[in-house]
Amino acid sequence: MKKRLCFLFGLLLLTGCATSENEGNMSAEDLYNQAWEDLEATKYQKAAKGFEKIELEHPYSKWAVKSKLMGAYAYFKDEKYDDAVLALDRFIQYHPGNKDVAYAYYLRGMCYYNQISAADKDQGDTERAEETFQRLIMLFPESKYAEDARKKINLTEDYKAGQEMVIGRFYLKDKNYLSALNRFNVVLENYQTTVQIEEALYREVEIYAILGLNKYADGYYKILLKNYPQGKWTAKATDIMQKINNTGATNGKNIVSETTETRSWLDKLKWWKNDEESVAKTKTENKVETTDKTQEISWLDKLKWWKNNSPENSKEGK
Questions:
Q1: Alpha carbon 166 to chain centroid distance?
Q2: Residue 216 is assigned to a structural domain of this protein
């Protein structure tokens, strides 16, 4: 009985050694096919290791080049995005003229794109995804991946605009109206093709109405009404404008009340943009004391002073 067990053990040992020896002597093509089978069987981690083995054991074979890209794809499918990006960077660096390099850029962009978080979180991956897709479009504008990359860029713009809106709403809720306006203005100036524009226009109407700057509120309302006549935010803005009109407007033209003398110098500055007479009047009224003498400060200087001392800058260190 003991002899029989020893014989079986020896047979298994010899079989294992033979298997290991055969695996060590496998050609690059055989290793590639085996890794491909693992990939199709959703054994992504095993497949990635198999493709990497080809690079190590057969670095000069044609299969080694393919394995760099396929190993990255296996990591991508396994959601090991950092490993995938490293593998893709190697492929792009060492094989910039390869026919699949456009796909490598696309896959790299998707690694970041799949990690984009909610709008209220850090948008670093959004920036990196957009940067990679833009590079793909610049280098390979006619590739079959460029069209989808353009669509992905539009979506990344929505994410970035969404983050500005989140911050703007926070400032608005905190009654930090100037900082809120800054954020909504960023959306209007930099993300004009995103879905956030309608609400951003409404927020401008809302804040200027709160500040009593009805002329500005009316201007943004007209833009909102023209571009989104049936929009839900337009309906909200209409309610605001109706209240303004009922308290001091005629035929849709806003009339600012005679309380301009009690408004802060910053409100006067905003009003000045469309009222030269107001500027002429307030320029003689607003003087500040310097270390040397009392002198009149221009509105441009006041604007520069405010930008450096606004609540947003003082809180965030911007």
A1: 13
A2: yes
Q: What is the pTM of this model?
A: 0.61
CB atoms within 10 A of CB 239: 9
In a domain, 275, yes or no: yes
- Average pLDDT for consecutive 10-residue bins of the chain (318 residues)? 48 44 70 93 94 90 91 95 95 93 96 77 81 95 94 88 92 94 94 92 95 93 94 94 74 36 37 39 40 39 47 46
| Distance separating alpha carbons of residues 9 and 71, to the nearest angstrom | 37
Question: Does residue 222 sit in the same domain as residue 274?
Answer: no
| In contact, 154 and 173? CB cutoff 8 Å | no
The verdict on residue 2 lying in a domain is no
Residues of the domain holding 244: 196-256
The per-residue pLDDT for 267 is 44
